[in-house]
Design a protein that fits this description.
Elements: E1 3-7, H1 14-28, E2 33-37, H2 58-64, E3 69-72, H3 73-78, H4 84-89, E4 101-104, H5 106-114, E5 118-121
Parallel strand pairs: 1-2, 1-5, 3-4
């Protein structure tokens, strides 16, 4: 059974951490799953977030999973997150997409929804 984790909760939300926990459990059990970051969930891909040393960094925890981390490009740009290519295209001075995350269109979410057995939104 394949699972799609649709993450819309901001990194400061406990729901974002629950999404990570489920992803870690699915990976540990070798179960098929995909993730998609949308709405405020895209903020996890902001490389300019400062995290105190005594707190876990959600972005780093997602990177440790070594899976594909697609992020909605429109939601990201609306929240000030961009990669180098979109920074050039939209004449933004710098880029700040965290390593391991990919900006993608909503078509990818539609494909993921179409091909999954269950969808869980956080």
């Amino acid at each position: 059974m394949s699972t799609l984790l649709l993450i819309t909760a901001a990194p400061s939300s406990i729901h974002a951490w629950h999404a990570l926990g489920l992803a870690q459990a699915l990976k540990a059990k070798d179960q098929e799953f995909r993730v998609f970051f949308y709405q405020d969930g895209v903020q996890v891909a902001n490389n300019l977030q400062w995290i105190p040393d005594d707190q876990r960094n959600l972005s780093v925890e997602w990177q440790k999973l070594a899976i594909r981390l697609p992020v909605c490009v429109s939601a990201a740009l609306a929240r000030g997150i961009t990669d180098q290519e979109n920074a050039k295209r939209h004449q933004i001075q710098t880029h700040n997409l965290a390593k391991g995350f990919d900006l993608v269109g909503l078509g990818e979410l539609a494909d993921a929804v179409q091909s999954t057995d269950r969808l869980i939104q956080f």
